[in-house]
């Protein structure tokens, strides 16, 4: 049991550490779904086991995919469904997982006898309407769930083909339609309307679909499509999670320390690696090999950045920016109000509680660095609020994190890894 609130202790020396991080949530849930739908047996390595990926694993099991899971070895072996969904009506609990919810909504729509897709209240509160509208225009019989979960479908076939989807709220709507596109009679041909947030996640979707043998046609910004077909089983290795790595890169930057993350290097396909460019612009030194990345901290200055492509790092940047020597303006992330918590409002409120000035904008925030005072940080059941604000507890005295267990959504071992970095510095 972790104590709640969890008191943190200021580091007395800059850390000098190498950390091994768990697999990417985004890549794990994409690979699990493709492997679960594929013809034949797939072997996945580097798999993340966390609440979000357990939700996807449970859904695949319910659909009849045969799974062998080794949580210590971080592997999953799956005998896929060969593109044939079960005749029974499905009952899927996506828990708090946006990827599970948005990747499987098209699946309950296309399953022969449909089913119910529901989740934790936190996920019920998050937007779904753009995807529901797109599914209806593709022929889905969705009998409830206007803008939110729960969603109920009679099943009975999704024609597929051409469809317009709003891209300004979540890229997961597009990813879900693409990932399930091979199940639709005519495949899918998506046109994204409006701005497209979190664009690099679509590249991750395309990369995983293509690794499992389904070609994706796309232009750079607007059109994404795939034919009707069946995924092919694969041996597939999952990279460590770049969003999880942002906390350790940020920590090195804030402490004049050095932290290396193994397994994430120049060739990474994760968009959140762009956070390294922000740290560099702030003054940190970034070094990279094929299979590792390290950050070395220096004096930090504020920056003016657009995080629309990699917004999961916005709370991390808020923490780093609080100890820089000039203000930081973050733009392009109005849509993060619809994540696990309102990540603009929450960042402003909690920095204020710690005595750091920050102002809210429609599209983000400005942080004015200042002295951090002892306080318990509220985390709004949001793993990223907990992990990001823990960084301030490592560089100042008397900070504690409420509901530290919420990190289990994507990184159950977070506090242990943070402690190992501390242990190396003392
Ligand atoms: O497709 C994915 O794996 C994700 C896409 C992003 O969400 P949005 O597209 O909703 O911004 C990101 O914030 C989330 O953590 C994971
Ligand atoms: C937004 C997130 O998760 P998801 O949308 O996958 O629930 C996240 O992990 O920060």
What does this 3D model show about the protein?
The chain is built from 13 helices and 23 strands. With 426 residues, it is α/β, with parallel strands linked by helices. It has 2 domains: 6-22 and 241-425, Enolpyruvate transferase domain (UDP-n-acetylglucosamine1-carboxyvinyl-transferase, Chain); 25-228, Alpha-beta prism (UDP-n-acetylglucosamine1-carboxyvinyl-transferase, Chain). A 4-stranded mixed sheet has the order 2-15-17-16. Strands 4-5-3-14 form a 4-stranded mixed sheet, covered by helices on one side. Strands 6-7-9-8 form a 4-stranded mixed sheet. Strand 12 and strand 13 form a beta hairpin. Helix 1 (25-37) runs parallel beside helix 7 (200-211) and helix 6 packs parallel to helix 7 (200-211). The model has no long low-confidence stretch (mean pLDDT 97). The structure holds shikimate-3-phosphate and phosphoenolpyruvate. Shikimate-3-phosphate is lined by residues 26, 98-99, 170-172, 175, 197-198, 201, 311-312. Shikimate-3-phosphate binds next to helix 3 and helix 6. Pathway: Metabolic intermediate biosynthesis; chorismate biosynthesis; chorismate from D-erythrose 4-phosphate and phosphoenolpyruvate: step 6/7. It holds the Pfam family EPSP_synthase.
Helical amount: 25-40%
Report the CATH topology name of the largest domain.
UDP-n-acetylglucosamine1-carboxyvinyl-transferase, Chain
Describe the main β-sheet briefly: 4 strands, mixed
CATH class assignment of the largest domain: Alpha Beta
pLDDT < 50 runs, ≥5 residues: none
GO molecular function: 3-phosphoshikimate 1-carboxyvinyltransferase activity
EC number: 2.5.1.19
GO cellular component, one term: cytoplasm
Enzyme class: transferase
């Amino acid at each position: 049991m972790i104590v709640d609130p969890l008191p943190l202790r200021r580091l007395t020396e800059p850390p000098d550490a190498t950390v091994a991080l768990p697999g990417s949530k985004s890549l794990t849930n994409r690979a699990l779904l493709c492997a679960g739908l594929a013809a034949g047996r797939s072997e996945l390595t580097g798999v993340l086991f966390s609440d979000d990926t357990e939700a996807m694993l449970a859904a695949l099991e319910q659909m009849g995919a045969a799974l062998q899971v080794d949580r210590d070895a971080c592997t999953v072996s799956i005998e896929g469904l060969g593109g044939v969904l079960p005749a029974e009506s499905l009952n899927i609990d996506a828990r708090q997982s946006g990827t599970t919810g948005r990747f499987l909504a098209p699946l309950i729509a296309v399953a022969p006898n449909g089913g119910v897709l529901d989740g934790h209240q936190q996920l019920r509160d998050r937007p779904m309407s753009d995807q529901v509208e797109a599914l209806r225009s593709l022929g889905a019989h969705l009998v409830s769930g206007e803008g939110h979960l729960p969603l109920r479908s009679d099943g009975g076939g999704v024609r597929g083909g051409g469809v317009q989807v709003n891209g300004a709220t979540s890229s997961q709507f597009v990813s879900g339609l693409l990932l399930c596109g091979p199940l639709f009679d005519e495949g899918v041909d998506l046109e994204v309307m409006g701005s497209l947030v979190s664009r690099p996640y679509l590249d991750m979707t395309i990369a995983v679909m293509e690794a499992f043998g389904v070609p994706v046609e796309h232009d750079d910004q607007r059109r994404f499509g795939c034919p009707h077909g069946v995924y092919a089983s694969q041996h597939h290795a999952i990279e460590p999670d770049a969003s999880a790595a942002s906390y350790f890169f940020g920590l090195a930057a804030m402490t004049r320390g050095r932290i290396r993350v193994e397994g994430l290097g120049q060739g990474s396909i994760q968009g959140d690696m762009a956070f390294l460019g922000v740290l560099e612009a702030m003054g940190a030194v970034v070094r990279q090999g094929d299979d590792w990345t390290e950050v070395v901290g220096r004096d930090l200055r504020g920056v003016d950045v657009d995080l629309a492509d990699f917004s999961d790092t916005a709370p991390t940047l808020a923490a780093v920016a609080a100890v820089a020597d000039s203000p930081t303006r973050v733009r392009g992330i109005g849509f993060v109000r619809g994540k696990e918590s309102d990540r603009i409002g929450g960042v402003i409120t909690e920095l204020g509680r710690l005595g750091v000035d920050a102002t809210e904008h429609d599209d983000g925030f400005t942080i004015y660095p200042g002295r951090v005072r002892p306080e318990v940080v509220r985390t709004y059941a949001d793993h990223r609020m907990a992990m990001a604000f823990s960084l301030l507890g490592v560089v100042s005295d008397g900070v504690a994190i409420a509901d530290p267990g919420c990190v289990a959504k994507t990184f159950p071992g977070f506090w242990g890894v943070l402690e190992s970095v501390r242990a190396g510095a003392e």
